[in-house]
Design the sequence.
């Protein structure tokens, strides 16, 4: 691993349903693909953590991840992954056209696919019993499928979105992980195989293990404390 | 204007409620800021247009805009604007740290702010009379405000997201335009002033005029035809 002064900000404690999908996973994975060592800094209530109020000075929306590399502080998982990809061929080819297409699929992941997927996950995970869900969920599911079908067709004869693994696959496969509480990805064999292919990468496995290791044991009362 | 072979794909016909906010506006605006001439190619049913089925070969999700520059075809408005920004200082400084922060705010616009704003606009414009809306809309509005308040605070003492106009302002202000059917932006004086500041740019005005000029006169029956 290349030594660095990089810090990745993450959460100390989230409910089990969110463990393994919080977006600092993207930054950790990108750093692992580049072979760059980093340290995590946690936002929470335990010893050595930043309080949420302190963290607002780094990230105005209070979201994780943020990223610090010496003088440079950055937030937005897409921007951090892109920042690393700009400087590391492990995440993006040096070819001008391939770079443009990597960015195309990065934005497709975060602006075309994720908003729909996130809306469905929010319904299922946070409002399962709300009165409006029964009437609304079918339309949201349909919007998800309208995006996933063309994506599955694109991946039917490809291992990755471009002709090799890039930062776009890193983002797209983490977006697909948000559907893990459903069988929607599995309904599309090309998507399922693609997600498994991405998740089998050693860099992904290390990043996931590191995120999970940083969480304190889950105590539901922690949310109220 | 610098001559070019650039084509921007746009729609021939959308309902009045969408005119002036379709996302090819972003690409047209970016090209105008760079002083690059372009032609539009329309997707629709009229003479000289691409049919939606033909357009799927260019854009697998069927969305506009797409962008063609000689051999390079790109989709995703964020990726196209970024592609232009990479090569034109009119949209992004050459300083490494400023470039990273421009990208940070580009992703904030499209991945933190737009999904919430879009969800509210979808409710108001496409499902105003649905049974689930009364119960669901307050939560969606609250999520919008939770994002807009920190954004307004950031812009309280700044003209732009960074210390000059960049591609991030181009994206963020077009995201805010999606709320034009409400008074939500106007409730935040800093956001309202910011949006007006961006929209007063001559390049924006030319881009908006060009988008509007490309639409055929609206006939509700066209949607069924």
Sequence:
């Amino acid at each position: 691993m290349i030594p660095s002064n990089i810090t990745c900000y993450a959460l100390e404690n989230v409910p089990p349903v969110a463990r393994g999908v919080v977006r600092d996973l993207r930054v950790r994975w990108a750093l692992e693909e580049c072979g760059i060592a980093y340290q995590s800094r946690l936002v929470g209530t335990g010893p050595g953590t930043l309080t949420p109020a302190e963290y607002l000075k780094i990230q105005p929306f209070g979201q994780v991840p943020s990223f610090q590399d010496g003088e440079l502080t950055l937030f937005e998982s897409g921007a951090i992954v892109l920042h690393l990809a700009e400087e590391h061929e492990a995440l993006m080819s040096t070819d001008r056209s391939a770079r443009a297409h990597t960015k195309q699929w990065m934005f497709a992941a975060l602006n075309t696919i994720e908003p729909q997927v996130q809306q469905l996950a929010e319904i299922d995970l946070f409002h399962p019993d709300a009165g409006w869900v029964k009437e609304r969920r079918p339309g949201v599911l349909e919007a998800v499928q309208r995006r996933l079908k063309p994506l599955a067709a694109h991946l039917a004869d490809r291992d990755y979105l471009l002709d090799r693994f890039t930062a776009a696959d890193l983002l797209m496969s983490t977006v697909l992980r948000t559907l893990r509480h459903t069988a929607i990805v599995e309904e599309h064999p090309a998507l399922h195989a693609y997600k498994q292919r991405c998740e089998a990468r050693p860099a992904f496995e290390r990043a996931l293990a590191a995120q999970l290791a940083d969480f304190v044991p889950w105590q539901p009362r922690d949310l109220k404390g």
